[in-house]
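Hi R.,

As promised, here are both runs. First protein below:
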Amino acid sequence: MAAGTGTGTTATGPAGGAGTKATAGIPGTTEPAGTAGPAGVPGTAGMPVTAGPVSGRLPGASGGRPRAGGRLRRTLLAGLVAGAVVVPVSAAASPGAPAPAPAAVAATASPHDRYAANRANLTEAARMAEDAGRTGRASKLRTMEASGTAQFLAFDGRGRGRAVEVFGELETADRVTVLVPGSDTTLDTYQRFRAGAVSLQQRLQAGHPRSAVVAWLGYDTPGTVSATVLTADRAKEAAAELGPFLDRLRPMAGPGARLSLLCHSYGSVVCARTGTGPAVTDMVLFGSPGTGAASVRELPTRARVWAGRGSGDWIGHVPHVRLGGIGFGSDPVDPAFGARPFTAGPAGHSDYLKPGTESLDSLAAIVLGSAGASTAPEIPHA
């Protein structure tokens, strides 16, 4: 359900700062305001689609000028996909709320130094929002402070906002999970994303104390009720942030730490475009509308790829098609896709990380390496 961290990231943050934009993954560096920032992820509900025209002709179409029937089918298909995605969920945002530029943190700063710098920045963002009469945003930011105990590797309060929060002791953890959210994950909807991260961390620590969860709202997620959620454009830009972030995260964790990517909804489109190194052992796609890839062979990772969907998830009714840049592509839970299946029980689209659920138990087992052997064959990656 949400996407950088600390200094050294290359992407620019959301618009709204005075003259500068911060890097998406890790605060600490700034770039000229004219630099274009990455787009596209995290909340919990929206689902990505894959970009790129379909090869070949539509059924019934002949060479030369397209027939009217083909155009009609194209229009109806686009409407069907859009309706399936935009009807179930929507969320509000506070794009006009004032906020300071992100904190500048040295590339060599420890996680705890980053936490302190970003807590101070968060406090200032809440004050500025309050002074500007944006009491709703100010209240949500104060909630994010968690009475001064929050651990943010990155925070940018401008526009829809970005945040990268750690749950657990990152520096000693040997199991680190990065949550990548779907559409409509913003600072205004952050608490639902945070709740899932907290639930997962509590479940992991019950079985393995040296666990940490990173909630990565490191990109501008598309709105559920928007045209952007029907294309992979923001996912591509987000992936360019997520990959380098993972490389920076690994040295911050404990010795020999294994990383897992848990990718929800539109976040699965982001993860499917993210190149990962050997430290990432598992990539999990859940509540996914598709990734744009025909199979796991096409994903830029050597990690084990898992896929699951709850029986109550409305995303299962989204057409798995791709046409003229609109659509989601192959269904990751289809055995032909080649992902390892996991049991998600009756989970609805926003229920996968709720305490006490079968889906949460399955996700924790994957992260901890205790998931049962899958019946799906191992598919070699490209």
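And here is the second one, sequence first, then its structure tokens:
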Amino acid sequence: MDQRITSEPLTTAPSTAQPIRIDAGSSATPSTSAASGPVWSQDSAGSGSDRPGASKGVVFGANDVSVHYGSAPALVNVTLDIREREITAFIGPSGCGKSTFLRCFNRTNDLIPGAKVSGRIDYHAQNLYAKDVDAVEVRRRIGMVFQKPNPFPKSIYDNLTFGPKVNRMKVDFDEVVETSLRRAALWDEVKGKLKQNAYSLSGGQQQRLCIARALTVDPEVILMDEPCSALDPIATAHIEDLMRELEHDYTIVIVTHNMQQAARVSDRTAFFTAEIESEDDDRRFGRLVEIGDTSKIFSNPTDKRTEDYISGRFG
């Protein structure tokens, strides 16, 4: 069932569906225009990288990325790489822009009125914000799991076939359902009640269902915005075990306030801090302090601000 296409430029969506287009920077709701066009621009490829942690197998390359909501900065001058088939964790105090930056990777900030992203983000060396990029195709390749489980008010089965149907994927729906549930370690628990409403599941099961739903369209990347914050310790352990399993096939980026969780599951950790815009204004904006191997960030960070946060001196 794997239809993932990574570094090759596309001219149409792999499902053969007519793409739904949103131009870069648009905050409008996606329209159902039947006009087809290139998904990735052939001339949008970037050059070499001098970003922190640059290496072979880079999925995302962010260069000097800033995000503003209206005139207010939310995040400034972030430069880093995200490597393939690793778990990268974003940690930092509230208001440091972790979730804002996460949303840059699948362009969901486009849907927030007044949001503006500047700088450059490359996905496999292709400019993610080029004008001819199909934002809906971006979100197919780069799935997202949110803080609270958000299953649709439908059956478990219908939750899992929704994405392939919308994307007009020519697949066996029964196979899609079983495969995605097995990948999310949920098949054995729900295989006898696929027609039941998804709301009948526990919170932890609902979150695994949402992960399974993201997998049904075969993304390459899974973004997770505090996926365990609303779960109990047992359900959290299930999600963490699942992330380690999925890492073999997917690139995962997770935002978490739980530093122990970042230490347990991630390969690399990025620490963001919040700074005050001015002495006369209490508004905060986020800034990347450092990124590195998780073991080094937690045992021997380069920046004292990172050490102070991890040791509990602030944040």
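A quick note on the second one: Confidence is low (pLDDT under 50) at residues 1-5, 7-56. Let me know what you think.

Best,
J.
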